[in-house]
Structure formats: structure tokens, C-alpha cells
Amino acid sequence: MSDKVVLYYFNGRGKMESIRWLLAVAGVQFEEVYLTTNEQFQKLVNDGALMFHQVPLVEMDGMKLVQTKAILNYIAGKYNLYGNGLKERVMIDIYAEGARDIMEMIMVLPFTPPEKKQSQLDKIQLKVKDRSLPTYEKALSNSQFLVGNQLSCADVHLFEATLMLEELFPAILSTFPKIQAFQNRMKAIPAINKFLQPGSQRKPPPDEVYVKTVMDVLSHLFK
Amino acid sequence: MSDKVVLYYFNGRGKMESIRWLLAVAGVQFEEVYLTTNEQFQKLVNDGALMFHQVPLVEMDGMKLVQTKAILNYIAGKYNLYGNGLKERVMIDIYAEGARDIMEMIMVLPFTPPEKKQSQLDKIQLKVKDRSLPTYEKALSNSQFLVGNQLSCADVHLFEATLMLEELFPAILSTFPKIQAFQNRMKAIPAINKFLQPGSQRKPPPDEVYVKTVMDVLSHLFK
């Protein structure tokens, strides 16, 4: 099997975007195969590539990896984004999971019925301002990084989550100066700066085409 | 801080039960504080113990740990239930996440409106028979354990998930002989055998009292 890293997903953020972020920060080059039809998806299932009939799928190091968190943990472990020792690791996991909770709430928004969207947005904003952001502000009060003295996957996830939040609520960080400073430090990291430039493999916010494609590819689930 | 391991949760399965399982298999003694009122929950929040205003909370090794998967990863890492090396670990994560997917679908059932319960049950059964169980049957076809040659958290999660499935669908494993044999091997492990006996800290399936208690304790979310 080749040494290439290949990502199989929709041409959009979804569950794959955090994987793209970690790979970019780790400086790992990757190729992407975009799924656009249910036939493509079923072929992957029939080939035995999708253990639980779900994407993301990442081909890497001779393995066909599925389950988002398993893939994220593997990349973090391999590329030194997972701290030192068990006690740092569990704190990284805690902060990483908190950031993923935010991103998962945002991720399902485009699939929320229009009449429920505003109440869902309000719920996210309230939850994040009341619980998540104060926790991260405190964690960053005396520290460059969320855990220990080096960059971890938790920092990358938090950074990604704050950018997603600002797309929805432009002023949401205005009362969180430590998180703003953290954002600026993160933007200055060369691999991150590069990934933020136009033309990178970073994906734009989901639009109607993305939603339609996901529903087409997974049409067996949306019957 | 004391060396005791203390679990803060409802007196029921929910997200804590897999943590109880891993601790039991690791031979770690633990105490439990059962939350029964919203005031108790708010006190934990006000004391700063619940970083994201969520339980489970586990006091362990001088830390106040939150986020279920972070806690599970920590216990697995500390007690040798996480394989050897990154490649075994990612496979353990994949199988563990697949089992957690099953358990999470079952976990929300008691909170599903009665008129939707049967369709949800049908959906779980179909999904599990069609996708998850064949994958585990194959993984166990030539092997004692899901990954490598030793017990991992993935085995413990799968075992727990199959017991939960059998409570809902007694005959569901009838066409999966390898998983049945796996269950029997797991039941013979002394720590597991002990946890399965009456009087252990294992919790029964959720009943109306459990559902009511959860909704009382989290009444600020169910408004």
C-alpha cells in the first residue's frame, strides 16, 4: 500500500475538517477523494473499507481508519500533539472533547429544519458563552497553551471551534481577551497560517450544495 | 487530596456505566456519590468541579476529571487496557467507538417519547445486525481479543454493549457465534465475573425512577 494519506469524505467540513486541521498542523500532506453519489459510498462499504458503514475514512500508514475520534487520536499521538504522560493526556482529552462538543453542535445546524434553526443557534450561543468559553478563558489565563508547555490537539480543536463560532456570532469572543490572544498566537504558527490562506485544503462553511450532496450520498439513511 | 476514586453521577447507568466497567475490570475500588437534586448539581458547578457543567465527574489521582471519553482513555491508559503502540491503539479506539455508538443509541431510549420508542428500537436493531455485529464477528473470527493478544478497553466496551443489546433483543446474538464465544470468555474473567454478580456496583437497566431523577437533577436543561 502506498505511503500517501488519502481522505474519503464529502467536499466539505463535517466530521473530516478537524482531521484536515490536525494533518495540516502536523505538516502531513494528504489527498482527498470526494464522495458525490450513493454508489460510491456503497462501493466503499462493499469493499470492506467502512467498518461501521460510516465516513470519515482515512488511508494512512497501511491502514484504513474509521471513527473520527480514533483517527484524531492517532494523528495526535503520532505527531506529538498529545502532551507528555497520562496526566497531560487526560487534560488534553478533556479540553479537546469540550471543543468537539461545540463543533458537533454547529456541524448539525445545516441539517436542522429551517423553523428550528434560530432556537438552535440561540441554544448554542447561550451554552458556549455560559459554559465553554469561560472554561477556556480560565485555562488560558496564565498559559500559552491549554495544557503544559507545548501545542496539543486540544489547542488546534479550540482554535478551529472559535473560528466556527465567530462565523455564526462575530462578536462572541469580545468578552474573552485570553481566547482572542490565543487565536492570534495560533494564527502566527506557520502551518496554521498556511492552512488559513485561500487555496488551502481548508473547507468553507457548509452551503446548500454540501447539504444536498451529503443527503444524496447517504440517501439510504434519509429514506 | 485523598487517593480514593469517587464517581459523581446519577444512581444509574448512563454515561458513567462504562467507566464503572473499566474500573471494575482494572480492579480499582471506587465510591459513588449519587446526585438526586438540582441543588447538588449546581453546587458542583459553583465549586468549579464541572468544567463544562456536565457529569460524569470522577475524582482520581488528585484530579477532577470530566468528559466521559477522556476519563475512559485515562483509565485504559493507566491500567494497561490500551494495547501496545499507536497502531494497536488506533484499532482499539475504532472498535471502542463502534461499541460506544451502540451504547449511546440505547442510553437515550428511556428519554425518547413513548410514541417514538418502537421505531427507535427497530432502527437500533437493524443498524446493529446489519453493520456493527458483523464487524465484531469478523474481528473475533481468529482471535481471542478484538486487538492484539491482550484484553483492551474495546473488549470491555463490546462486552458491555452486547449485554445491553441482549436486554432489548434477547436473540440478537443467535447468528453471531464468535461474539457468543467472546461473551463466554469475558464472563470467565474473575474481575468481570465478580462485577456481574448481584450486589456489585453494576447498575440495572434504567427505570422510571432513574429517568425522573435525571430530569430533576438537570431541570435547568429540561425547562
From TrEMBL, chains A, B:
Residues 3-83 form the GST N-terminal domain. It is an enzyme of class 2 (transferase). Pfam families: GST_C (PF00043), GST_N (PF02798). Keywords: Transferase. Residues 85-206 form the GST C-terminal domain. PROSITE patterns: GST_CTER, GST_NTER. Its EC number is 2.5.1.18. GO terms for molecular function: glutathione transferase activity. It catalyses: RX + glutathione = an S-substituted glutathione + a halide anion + H(+). GO terms for biological process: glutathione metabolic process. Belongs to the GST superfamily. Alpha family. This is Glutathione S-transferase. The gene is gsta.1.
